[in-house]
Amino acid sequence: MSNTTRPHSIRLGVGLAAGLLVLGACSPAGVVVGGAASAGVAASEERGIKGAAKDTIIRVKINEAWMAEDFDTFSRLNLQIYEGRVLVSGRVPDQALADKAVQAAWKTEGVREVINEIETSERGGLNEFANDTLINARLDADLLFDGDVDSINYSTRAVAGTVYLLGVAQDRDELDRVFRIARDVPNVKRIISHVIMKDDPRRIARPEAGGNREAQPASSR
Question: What's the CATH class of domain 46-120?
Answer without folding.
Answer: alpha beta
